[in-house]
Specification:
Layout (H helix, E strand, L loop, with lengths): L3 E5 L4 H17 L4 E4 L2 H8 L4 H4 L6 H16 L15 H13 L2 H13 L8 H10 L4 H9 L1 H16 L7 E4 L2 E4 L4 H14 L1
Parallel strand pairs: 1-2
Antiparallel strand pairs: 1-3, 3-4
Helix pairs in contact: 1-10, 2-9, 5-6, 5-8, 5-9
């Protein structure tokens, strides 16, 4: 089976919603989806992209359509809506470096769950170091180890490398899935991701 990757940044509410459906896809297809931390700001800079808050703010009806689209997604996948974060947009550099370290340390799964929950269920200000420490503590994660890992040159460079490699493969935002070399952007491609996985399984 080809590698299946989920390129994510905690700052994207749509990445959070896609994260919620990953377990359903994994269970039905009996596969494991690998989480790859990338920096959304770096993706935007490298591809001359910007947040929908910027690119779509003056488009008549677009915001209302996105709300309707999200409502259908929540219904179809039976997942809860994210909570509006009053601090949005949040600078996610530190917690994305934390994800990069957590992957190397073998604690990515609980770390990802804690950070997505803090951002999009608890609506915390996740660019505040005191808040980050508090949320790591609440999740019973190794706070000092992760904070030290965030500061490591290797961690910083790996996040840069991940982001550049993602751009080189065609990515321009988050959430993005890669099934082998096939790229699927946005939460609304989750069904397409599952269909591509099923197709590959059928061909084996």
């Amino acid at each position: 089976m080809q590698t299946i990757e989920f390129h994510f940044d905690f700052g994207s509410p749509n990445a959070y919603l896609a994260h919620l459906v990953v377990p359903q896809i994994e269970a039905r297809a009996n596969v494991q989806i690998q989480y790859v931390p990338v920096l959304l700001g770096g993706l935007f800079k490298a591809t001359n992209n910007a947040s929908p808050m910027v690119t779509e703010k003056d488009i008549l009806n677009k915001r209302e359509y996105r709300q309707m689209e999200t409502a259908r997604f929540l219904r179809d996948w039976n997942v809860p809506a994210q909570v509006a974060n009053p601090h949005f947009p949040v600078n996610t550099l530190q917690i994305m470096r934390g994800a990069t370290y957590a992957l190397r340390a073998g604690i990515l799964t609980p770390y990802v769950e804690a950070m997505f929950t803090s951002m999009w269920r608890k609506a915390k200000k996740m660019d505040d170091l005191d808040v980050i420490q508090s949320e790591l503590t609440a999740a019973q994660l190794p706070v000092d180890e992760i904070l030290a890992g965030i500061a490591q040159a290797e961690t910083k460079q790996t996040l840069i490398d991940n982001t550049q490699a993602s751009v080189a493969r065609g990515n321009f935002g988050s959430p993005t899935f890669f099934v082998g070399e096939q790229m699927f952007f946005g939460k609304n491609t989750c069904k397409d991701v599952e269909a591509e996985i099923e197709r590959l399984i059928a061909e084996r």
